[in-house]
Amino acid sequence: MQREQVIVVKLGTSVLTGGTDKLDKAHMVELVRQCSELKKQGHQVILVSSGAVAAGREQLIKPCGRSLIDKQMLAAVGQGQLIHIWQSLFALYGINVGQMLLTRADVDDRARYLNARDTLTALLNYDVVPIINENDAVATSEIKVGDNDNLSALVAILANANKLLLLTDQEGLFTSDPRTNADAKLIDEVTHINDELRQLAGGSGTNLGTGGMATKLQAADIARRAGVEVIIAKGAGNNVILKCMSEQLPGTRFLKLTAPKDGRKKWLMAGPKSTGQIMIDAGAIAALQNKGASLLSKGVTSAFGRFERGDLIDLIDADNQVIARGLTRFSSVEVNKIKGAHSNKIGNLLDYDTGAEVLHRDDLVLF
Question: Three-state secondary structure along the chain?
C-alpha cells in the first residue's frame, strides 16, 4: 500500500471548461470522484482551481469584455459560484471543502505566510479539502502571483506536499509544440530544467486561461526545488489523477530535488520576489555550494537593481544563472562599494562596520 501523501491538484480553466466558455460540470464530478478515491486511500488532497472568471461570465446575461477590470468583476461574480459548485460536488461523497483566496502579499510577508500555512494545515487536519484560488477580484499587478500554475507551486510548499499535479489541455511537455508539429514527442521524465527545455514551452493553449506551458515549467522548477514531485498531464484523460499515483504515470514527471529542511528557507524559496541581483565569482560559488559558507564581499563582482539591507536578492554567476537567493545584509549602493574587498576593509570603505557577510548562510537557499 502507498504511503499517505499530500497531493496538490491544479486544475486549469481549459480542464474545467473543456475548451468551451462554460464550466463542464460533468467532468468536474469525475475529477471529484478521483479526489474522493485518493482520500479513501489515505491521502490528503488540495485543489488549486481556476475557473472563477469563466463561472462569472457564464452567470451574466449581458456580454462582458476582457479588460482587467472586467475580469476582476467576473471573478467577483464567479468565485462564489465556483466554490458552491465544488462544495455541492464534494458533498456527494461526504467531503467538506474550505475556500482560501491568496495573493502574492500573503506569501511575501513572513507572518502572513505562516498564517496561510497554519490555516492550510488546520483544514487538512480536520479532513477538509482546501479549494484555493488567487484573489482575482482585488489583486493588482503588484500583488498578483499571476497564474494558478505558480500559485499551485507556492501552495505545495506551504502544505509541505509530496506531489503537485498540473492538469492542463496538453498531455505533458513535448520536444516541440504538438499543435503545430505532428512529429513532436512527449518527454516522459525531466531531471534538469535548463534554457533548452524552457525554449520548448510555448504560450497559453486557450484564450480562457492565463497559464501556458512556460508557467507550468516555472511552477515545476519552484516546486521540485522544495522537494515536491511534479507531473504535467492532460486533465481530460481517463482517471488521470489516480494514474498519477500509480505506475501508469501519464504525462511528464519532474523529479524532485533535495529540499531544505528549514521552514524559513522554504519561505525564501517560495515567497518574496527578488528586488535585485548580486553577481559572484567562481570561488564564492564553490564556497557556497561545497563548504556551506556565507557570501563575503571578496567574492562579489557586481550588484544590479536597487535594494536595501534585509531585501531578498538573487545571487548570479557570470552567465546570469541564478545560484542562490537570500536576504542581503547590505544595500546595493554598499555592495558596489565593498565588492571584491577583503572583509577587514569594509569598515574603511563604508565608514562603519555592519559585519563581514554580505549574505549569511542562514539567510540564503542554494539553487
Answer: CCCCCEEEEEECHHHHHCCCCCCCHHHHHHHHHHHHHHHHCCCEEEEEECCHHHHHHHHCCCCCCCCHHHHHHHHHHHHHHHHHHHHHHHHCCCCCEEEEEECHHHHHCHHHHHHHHHHHHHHHHCCCEEEEEECCCCCCCCCCCCCHHHHHHHHHHHCCCCEEEEEECCCCCECCCCCCCCCCCECCEECCCCHHHHHHCCCCCCCCCCCCHHHHHHHHHHHHHCCCEEEEEECCCCCHHHHCCCCCCCCEEECCCCCCCCHHHHHHHHCCCCCCEEEECHHHHHHHHHHCCCEEHHHEEEEECCCCCCCEEEEECCCCCEEEEEECCCCHHHHHHHCCCCHHHHHHHHCCCCCCEEECHHHEEEC
Distances (CA, A) of 20 to 15, 25, 167, 206: 10, 12, 17, 10
User: Has residue 349 got a pLDDT over 60?
Assistant: yes
Indicate whether this model's pTM tops 0.85. Answer: no
The two most distant CA atoms of the chain are separated, in Å, by 71
246-286 residue pLDDT tens: 877 889 999 988 766 666 677 777 656 777 999 999 999 99
315: region left, alpha or beta (phi > 0 left; psi from -120 to 50 alpha) = beta
Contact present, 353 and 347 (Cβ < 8 Å): yes
Q: Is 64 exposed, middle or buried (0-12, 13-18, 19+ CB in 10 A)?
A: middle
List Cβ neighbours of 64 (8 Å cut-off, separation of 6 or more): 57, 70, 73, 74
Contact (CB, 8 A) for 365 and 265: yes
Query: What sign does the CA torsion over 338, 343, 344, 347 have?
Result: positive
Mean pLDDT of the chain: 85
